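for the writeup, i need someone to sanity check this before i put it in the appendix. the sequnce is what the collaborator sent (i think, or maybe the updated version? ugh). structure was predicted straight from it, no edits. if anything looks off just tell me and ill rerun, i have time this weekend
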Amino acid sequence: MAVKPPRAEKPEYCFPLVMLAPVAGVNDRAAREIAREHGCPLTFSELVSARGLQERNAGSMQMLEECRGEHPLIFQIFGGEPDSAYDAVRMAEELGVEGVNLNLGCPVKKVFKNRSGCGLSIFPCDLVHVLRAMRKATSKHLSVKIRAGVNFNSLNYRLIGDIAQGEGCDAVVFHARTRLMGFGGEAQWDWIADLKQYLDIPVIGNGDAVDPLSAKRMLDYTHCDGVMIGRGAYGNPWIFRRILYYLETEEILPEPELEERINVFLRHHQLAVQWKGERKAIFEMRKHLGWYVKGWPNVKSLRDRVYQLENIDEIVLAVREWLESALSVSNAAMI
């Protein structure tokens, strides 16, 4: 029978019951600000290359700067080299973030083949040295975000949990899928329950918690210490407040009305322009628009029109006109 490593000392900062996942290309500064405005108690940065920060790569430095003044925030890095991981953590510390997270779950091929993300998890000796360097670089909250393994035949989440706990990590965030599953298939909550029982440090569950009911089911089934929300928050920043309210009262808050959804989307778009510039924000916000209006009738015409526009004022006008039309149809149907 395996012997558990000793429990790390409790850090000053502890994860809340619900938090926003660090989804690359989706949960940037604008998305994180919107989430916090609607009740999210903790956000994670997009994954940032440790080597990129060490070498002062322009893109990596821009992502670092986007996190400045943002609280509460866990800064997430990826990489397989102790020296660059150390330097990256020191740079993140200068921002005053609440903690740092090492990504061990990214399944993307170019990350994986460089022994980063999920790729680092199959080299446990290298992982030990990276985490040791990170722990040396900071006394703040340190965590890892993992998957179950590369595939069903190579599940190693207990081993990675052992290493994380033994090297002084304060929590493990566990996306209960393998690398080959990507974001498909059903998350295996039994794995989360097993890791929670096995480790002494907190385990945060991730995977298929998409609303208040499923979040509570995950907590009850696995006894995990918190729930990380990824795709369930796409175009749905209200999910955090609704989950927390349900956990406290066992009552379901109503879904936001269409007008509120559109107003929050426009606020999101405004923040994206502020942080990314108009041209890049217009391109990136197209996918967010689809998420905000998903499930409502006649959204194809709105998406088709917005995809042809390249000016922020024209997009705001198009969205407002669509909203007026949608509300008129809705009101007429109620008469």
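The domain at 258-334 is CATH 1.10.1200.80 (Non-ribosomal Peptide Synthetase Peptidyl Carrier Protein; Chain A). The CA atoms of residues 11 and 158 lie 22 Å apart.
thx in advance!!
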